[in-house]
Specification:
Layout (H helix, E strand, L loop, with lengths): L6 E7 L4 E4 L5 E11 L12 E10 H10 L5 E10 L6 E10 L42
Amino acid sequence: MSIPTRQCIVGEVASRPEWSRTVTGSKRLYARITVTARRRLPDGTYSDPQTTTHALVMFGGVAERSRTRLRQGDFIVAAGYVRANTTGNGEEFVARWWGHEARHTEYTVTRTPTRVRLPFRPRTPTPPPVPRFVAPDPAPAA
């Protein structure tokens, strides 16, 4: 069985995120993201870092959750796919999920409390009920 993989992008949010709605009413987030990457050259060495800027979009629940968590200047890792820009010129990265990049971001993890699980104790079976004999009513005296 192969490992499922996705396209990912790692970079800095370069513009202030803009929220809007699509024509169908779904929530949409748009921002620009800068990516600094080195390319491997044919001789096995790497090129100098090059910075490029790309369009980043999110839809639906991902966009809604990003509304309070994503800011200009944040370093993020996003997974999704690349598609042709809706205006027809260029490409945009559609993020299905994202998170802050741990190497550049200090953060605190707040975990929801988990249920306390008691150790497993097998139940002792309850014996079946003992049938009780009920005496019939005495016949009336004649």
